[in-house]
Amino acid sequence: MPFDLPFLAESFVALLKGIPLTLQLTVLSVVAGGILAFALAFMRISGKWWLDVPAQFYIFVFRGTPLLVQIYIIYYGLSQFPVLRHSFLWPFLREAYWCAVLALAFNTAAYSAEIIRGGLLSVPAGQVEAARACGMSGLLLFRRIVMPLALRQMLPGYSNEIILMVKSTALASTITLLEITGIAAKLISESYRPVEVFVCAGAIYLAINFLVARLFAWLEYTVSPETRKPEERRA
Amino acid sequence: MDYLRLMSFGPDGWGYSLLAATGVTVAVAVCGFLVGAMLGCLGAAASFSRFRALRSAADIYTTLLRGIPDLLVIYLFYFGSSSLISSVGALFGAEGFVGAPAFLTGALAIGVVSGAYQMQVFRGAVLALPKGEIEAGRAYGMPPLLLFRRIVLPQAARFAIPGVGNVWQLVLKESALISVIGLVELMRQAQIGAGSTRQPFSFYLTAGVLYLLIAFVSGRGFKLAEQRAMRGIRRAV
């Protein structure tokens, strides 16, 4: 198989056009999923069974089924119901774009909820007691003590989840969206040169994931000054 | 009631086809998982090697395959082997595109991806071994292979079970992606059913429930295996 450099450059440029859509899908679904995940995590740790059990069920269902099934249920499946087809939601649910965002957000919410719960549970009881002794409670306690400590614990897990999300957006190509993988599949079926296209697309994904990982490493470094050596801390 | 008749095992029900497709899903997932276990073992062994080239090769393998979407890998395997077969076919006078066998390429593709994850699990399990065990084994004069078989493997296997269980769940869900290259597994069968009855929600929902069922049952299996493997271990917490 001869390695054709002009073709390589050509497909690289074509694939670059998919980056904005991949990033959009990732950011939108991570933000929406993150909000839902917080709600789920609080339901899980609320201690009330009627909040805990539904959240557990949600997490079980969305972690136990393939993302592809979730995407298809939302994109193809919902059209089975005439009620939905005639509702005000239809202009959104008709669009592959919003269906992909919705499915990705629901999916990541289930995984992130457990990461956030782990972070919240890792806050030492003594810290909360001390804060209460100082007279803090409710939102103030959460904002000043619980959240900053939990955030440090969940950053590594969350960065993994976001990298997984970047990779998951590839599934949006199965419902006609032309993000990086969608363009790659199109190029491959037009040119029958899978290796070159794969190398380009793979390199782009790796670059994105590398940047995400670096970003989170930097965030982690910034929010945990207490683990640094004294001379570093001063700088 | 309409739904039940659609999913029944009667003449106009899809019960049998969906059940058979579930079997294909399990088969392709198990094959991919086993290929991955082999690659994972090789990768982990390479990562502990004395030779730097092997160590970096293992590192590159796991970094690359964990950073690229699985769907892209499946496309590469399918179209890559198809174009290879087509060009071989052209030598013998066959014309046009010859598709590679979907089961084989699919199982290989998810095997290569899951191998990258399993390698990390196996590495972690070996690293979790107390160093003293290995030193003691060496002090008894065990050669590397004997040491591996008697000391490292039995204990590392125990530590690896939870992680391997996670990778299995991943592989099971990944196997749904093989539907894009035309293998009639559960996902593809649901697509076929959805297309010919115009009841996509019913079919995808059923597929989802079946995936959930496999995941649940196999999850219990891994839990039992873990309990059995850990029965001799005193827990700290």
Automatic annotation (TrEMBL), chain A:
Molecular-function annotations in GO: transmembrane transporter activity
Every ABC transmembrane type-1 domain range: 19-217
Membrane topology qualifier: Multi-pass membrane protein
Annotated localization: Cell inner membrane; Cell membrane
GO term, biological process aspect, one: amino acid transport
Residues annotated as transmembrane: 20-43, 55-75, 162-185, 197-219
UniProt GO cellular component terms: ATP-binding cassette (ABC) transporter complex
Keyword Transport: yes
Keywords on record: Cell inner membrane, Cell membrane, Membrane, Transmembrane, Transmembrane helix, Transport
Family matches, as InterPro entries: AA_ABC_transptr_permease_3TM, ArtM/GltK/GlnP/TcyL/YhdX-like, MetI-like, MetI-like_sf
Pfam families: BPD_transp_1 (PF00528)
Family (UniProt): Belongs to the binding-protein-dependent transport system permease family. HisMQ subfamily.
Protein name per UniProt: ABC transporter permease
